[in-house]
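Question (not urgent): is this output format expected?
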Amino acid sequence: MGRITARRQVTRITVGSPGRRREDVLAVEEPLEIRVGGTALVITMRTPGHDFDLAAGFLVSEGVISRHDDFGAARYCAGATVDGENTYNVLDVTLGFGVAPPDPSLERNFYTTSSCGICGKASIDAVRTLSAYPVADADVRITAELLASFPDRLREGQNVFDKTGGLHAAALFDARTGEMLVLREDVGRHNAVDKVVGWAVTNNLLPLRGMVLMVSGRASFELAQKASMAGIPILAAVSAPSSLAVELASDIGMTVVGFLRGPSMVVYSSPERIETQAAAESSTSITENEKVSTP
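Got this back:
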């Protein structure tokens, strides 16, 4: 597992019993500096792994790139420390031919934490980045039954979480077939989403108009924003959405589903994309009545 996990000696205490020393497995958290054309753009705290996807997804989220050819190449910088050691914590991205470099206003004067993907923005208006892929007209439907199966499948794929209990996860599901295309884990929920979107960029799959983004925690504004930038019409979470996430989703025509647990869920915006058995039976009944009344 390399640098994804680390082992530490801990003391396990149970009330009424003596403490016990044991070895525990922790999720690794390290800084990643993302540079574009040699110029530092951001430092984010992340779990090492799929760093190229993380960088590509981050650039999509910031509106710097929007398609496969915009992401030219990426490499870890040698000599990342004063003694010339490559720590694999500094990544330099080369943009595709003709792609404008990031606006200087995007440069963060301080790092983003693993719990915050929009720290450093001047105002909430600045993160309402105009997406190249509007989702309001995305003609995608999914049955409630199929959607309800996603959390368990997401959980089954969280291999590192099983060992550490300390990682968020995000996955892309095909709304028509239910196939899980990709799953990524990270200490930061926004990083997990960026890794998923970055995977889609490098596989030339944007926009993700027929997909559902499933996340293991809450649906925050930043996650709705990232989904919007990738053209994802449905965002589903096992926990609650924030008010700002729902406000954004309502503005742009995105479906947000929260508290997706077992057979139940709460749909906060654009509920027409979620098909229920009752709705299907009602539609069938109406069709049959129309047939009966037709001369």
